[in-house]
Amino acid sequence: MQVEIYTVAELKANFSDILERVTRGEIVGVAFGRNRRVKAYLVSKEKMPNLGEPRRLGILSGTMRVIFGKEWKCSE
Are 7 and 32 in contact (CB under 8 A)? Predict the structure, then answer.
């Protein structure tokens, strides 16, 4: 399967068109930085088998739960 790669700037400029392609089943890579390394892939919801299922906490499963507040931010 061929994966089309876009830079962040290209993705921003063509987001609606790219999202439509993903909806039709295509996979799109998102490249970032000078080396254009792929950092993420956009795939349709149907191609994500575990989407929406909670992640298990391993040995702590059933003894605790994790909740992220709205103010929580993720970074590299």
Answer: yes
Q: CA torsion sign, 38 to 39 to 45 to 48?
A: positive
Judge whether 50 and 43 are in contact, CB under 8 Å.
Answer: no
Domain residue spans of the chain: 4-60
CATH fit for domain 4-60, picks 1.10.260, 1.20.58, 3.30.160, 3.40.1620: 3.40.1620
> What tokens were used for 35?
């080396």
Task: Quick: pLDDT tens for 40-67.
Answer: 999 988 887 665 566 666 777 778 777 7
Whether the model clears a pTM of 0.85, i.e. scores above it, the answer is: no
pLDDT digits (tens, 9 = 90+) for 6-46: 999 999 999 999 999 999 999 999 999 888 899 999 998 88
